[in-house]
Each structure stands twice: as C-alpha cells, then as structure tokens.
From TrEMBL:
Subcellular location: Cell membrane
PANTHER family: IRON(3+)-HYDROXAMATE IMPORT ATP-BINDING PROTEIN FHUC (PTHR42771)
GO CC aspect terms: plasma membrane
Main location: membrane
GO molecular function: ATP binding; ATP hydrolysis activity
Matches recorded under InterPro entries: AAA+_ATPase, ABC_transporter-like_ATP-bd, ABC_transporter-like_CS, P-loop_NTPase, Siderophore_ABC-ATPase
Protein name per UniProt: Iron complex transport system ATP-binding protein
Origin superkingdom: Bacteria
Pfam families, per database record: ABC_tran
Biological process per Gene Ontology, one example term: iron ion transport
PROSITE patterns listed in its UniProt record: ABC_TRANSPORTER_1 (PS00211), ABC_TRANSPORTER_2 (PS50893)
Amino acid sequence: METLVAKDLTLGYGEDVIIDALDIAIPKGEITVFIGGNGCGKSTLLRSLARLLKPKHGDVVLNGKDIAKIPTKDVAKQLAILPQSPTSPEGLTVEELVRQGRHPYKTMFKRWSPDDEQAVNEALEATNMMELKDRTVDSLSGGQRQRAWIAMTLAQGTDTILLDEPTTYLDMTHQIEILDLLFELNEKRNSTIVMVLHDLNLACRYAHHIVAIKDKKVYAQGKPEEIISGGLVNDVFQMKCDVMYDPMFGTPMCIPHGRGRCLIKQAVEEAKQQKMQPV
C-alpha cells in the first residue's frame, strides 16, 4: 500500500521543467530516500508531494485522494514537511516551537487542549528534548536544533513526514543521531518517512526504499541492496566507484574512485623500491 503517489507529474519554475512526467509510489510505513545529483529535482519533488509546489501537469495522491482537493488543514493532519535549514524567530523556546506543530488543530472556537499538551510532551520525549524545552532554539547546537524541529513535526501528529536534507551542515556524530532518531520513529510508530539525502552510504544504511532521480525522471527505485551498483552510481552521479557490502550492516557501501592518499598503492611502491635495492 502507498501513502503518496505521483502520477505523470511535471514540475518546474517558470519555463524551466525540473521533473517531467514522473510516476512514483511511496511505500507506507517505510523510509524512502531520494538520491541524485545536485539540481536533479529531489527537493522540488519533495515540495510537490507536500503540496508546496503546484504541478505543471499530473497529480499527487495522498492516502487515496487528490492532494490538490484536500483542505489545507486536513493535509497538515496527514503529512508534515521539514524544509532544509528552517529558521525560527529569535528568542523562541523549544517548547514554543514544538507547540506550533498543533496549529492544524486550532479553530476559532477550540483552545489549547489536554490532547495538544500530550502531543507536545510526547514529541519532546521522543526526541530527547524535554530537558531543553525552555532553551531558546537559537542557543542550541546544530543537532539539538534539528531535533527540536523534528519534535515540532511529530507534534503535528501525522503518519507521514517529509524531510529535505535533514543532516545538512551537521557533523558526523549529529548526522547519525538524527538518522537514528528517524529510524526509531519509523520502527516504533510505523511512520512513513521520506528524505532527501546526499550521503549515498547513509541512504543505503537507513532506507528501506531508494529512489534515484536523473534527467527529470526516476532512473531506478527499490531496495538499496537491489538497485545500488557501480553502474547506477556512474550513471546518476557521473562517478566511478566500487560497491561492496558494509561489514557492520550488510548494506551497499560505495567506495568512490579518484585522487587521494592511497595506502595500498604506497605500500606496493615501497615494496618495489625495496626489491630494487642492491644487496
């Protein structure tokens, strides 16, 4: 069963077409990652799936209904999106930010409710942000700040979460922290998570389903272990590499070719030099 489906989707800005006649289905309850070269349309596609960009042609279907015909608040109760590098007003606390996730449930006559309070507290607990709830967002580290924003999307109470490059500008420790958090949310809540990631090895490690985009269309999609190959990486990223299995996780791991300090080559050259020395 699919949560999000795009049918014959064409996207662009002005006269420029970024995605052309694309068909895609996002598996329900799984982690899907979009990969592809810079400017291939990954973020554009994500924005369209969240109804932030109107298609030039085609449709996006959310839980069996045309997303263009669903009222905005109803969309926000089913799907949350976290854009790349979001910003908040100066001085806003973590708790105040997370409370904004409950906005789709507000009406002129409905005040803050125990259900709203529970949703916020559960989101803070799930992201390990409860102890930081009174801190201002701008005082947090990069990883903490990203967890605060993810908490806000969780408070929104949707089954589907879209994230545009959630690990951008984070160091290795915080990248793994955020991806582990999202993996746990998928396992514990059966959340459908769709992400754009640049690190191909991390995409293979965390994704159940990968969608590779090239030339405005889906080049390949499926389980990482079924589609990731040296040929795919060369075609999609114009980069030669060897693909082997990660010894810890058993997922595909790409070893790119290129210049650099090669210890194996250095050892071979040193051995040759030793053999050439006169005795």
